[in-house]
Amino acid sequence: MEPEGSTKSKRKRKRVELEVSPEEHVHADAAVDRISNLPDSILCHILSFLPTKEAVATSILSSSWNSLWTLVPALDLDSQSQCLDGKNRTQSVSFFTHMNFTVGNSSLILELWNGIAVDPPSSFEFPSLKDLRLVHVFFRNGDCVQRLLSGCSVLQDLKLCSDSRSGLIRFDIRVPTLKYLCLQFLTFKPSLPDYKLAICAPALECSHFDGDLGHVVFLEKLANLVEAGVWIDPFVCTREAWTKGYQIGYGDRVFRLLKALNKAKSLTLYPGNKQCVDFGSIYPSRFKNLVRLNFTLQKSNWHVLQALLLVSPNLEVLVIDKLYSRKNQLCSMEPFDGPGYVSSQLTTFRFNQYKGSKYEVEFVKYILKEARVLKTATISVCDTALKESVIEEVSTFPRSSKTCLLTVEVLH
Amino acid sequence: MKFCTVKQYFDDENNNNVTNGIATTVIPLPNKHLKIKANNKEMEQYEQELLRNVMPQELTKLILAANYLNFKEALDFFCRTVANAIQNKSVDYVRKFFGLESDFEPGEEEKLCKEFAWSFEGVDED
Prior knowledge:
- The complex is a heterodimer of chains A (about 400) and B (about 130).
- Among the domains of chain A are: about 20-75, no CATH class; about 80-180, no CATH class.
- Chain A is about 25% helix and about 20% strand.
- Chain A has ten helices and 18 strands.
- Chain A has helices at about 1-10, 40-45, 50-55, 90-105, 145-150, 240-245, 250-260, 300-310, 360-370, 385-395, and strands spanning about 75-80, 110-115, 115-120, 130-135, 140, 155-165, 170-175, 180-185, 195-200, 205-210, 215-220, 225-230, 265-270, 290-295, 315-320, 350, 375-380, 405-410.
- In chain A, strands 1-2-4-6-8-10-12-13-14-15-16-17-18 form a 13-stranded parallel β-sheet.
- Chain B is mainly alpha-helical and about 130 residues long.
- The interface of A and B includes residues 54 and 66 of A.
């Protein structure tokens, strides 16, 4: 009689699975002719489709609805819906006090964006928040960030997107539980001061950085780092006059950031264009754990690729993507004098947007010659007309790996 | 899979949770879903048609049916419909929709209104 028994017990069990389990009112036998008689978990599910502002408004419907909205696991707030006025300090503070008081126990994801003023009171707490996204919010001062983060004792995911209007000049990110960090800094105005950021997140497993790199310092080693992504893009406008002055010392910042990420197993890197001109050698720091490297190449950052390859003895997968370089740009490639520029463990190599330029040819030749355990080498060209000539040329390059499969494909 | 409970439903004769009428509405949904999966607009139209004349009470039954059958897409769809129906509406409208009555003390409701003032901005005229 097993099937019968299991049917019965399954019927009594709750179906809708949310991340939080609120107090359960099972109205299985009651008259179900009113929506409000639906179990709390389903009502919460309905509320989760409303913008938070509206979900909060349901608190006034009746006493049983009063705290229902606090059980919704994800909250998102946007000041464009006139939820919070950036200029109104009392409103902002009352919002945070409220969130603290009523939402504390169940909110798992909080997304704040577009101009909301973040200025939490000093006793602020978000005891179960795991995922926090701050997108273009405005901070009254640098302390606001840490005050917000200090209140989140179990925070694991943090995304911070800041542009020049965010008011961040000097701030910290200190979160001992943080596993995933995504930072994005966009600058649209050259006249703004540089920012200074100190990060203390020793449990970090995944770190992504995108945009303009200021003075970023990691206070503790990232021993658990698995994945890292760095995309340097300092200024959205291309005015020469401004970028000239900014270049000096920028390569040093990129270098320091990379050093801090040297425990990563997988790295996606675009070190910028002119910005990394003064980028030196990474040695003696080594990327011992690096197994996968995805590098976005331009004429002016070859030396960064080479420096990185030199210190990655266990690299297995290398993928090169190319970004457009201007014609009269200097190529920073250094001659390959001897082996050691590529790991002896390399099994997979891919070069995208291959054009067959002198430097590309030299690089591909070197890889094919030195990578003894190479299994697949793929070259992709953008132009179908180029495919034949590339196949012809590349198949003549000596390969030290007998089992290497060489493919040339067309990818637009 | 999506219909692990359907088999049990058909096996189980004394089933109060899902009436036959509801079942005929809910069960064809996944097939339709698969057929026009790529085309969002078509799905929207189909959904609009399906719910044009459905009263809140019917919707309740549909939601419970979808929940019982463990059919996530239908459950999300029905809940989203309810959410859309009450979005941006005044407190009184929503109360009527759900069949609720205010059971607050006289001063309490006002107090709540003030505290959450920011959440009541931009509401539709009924």
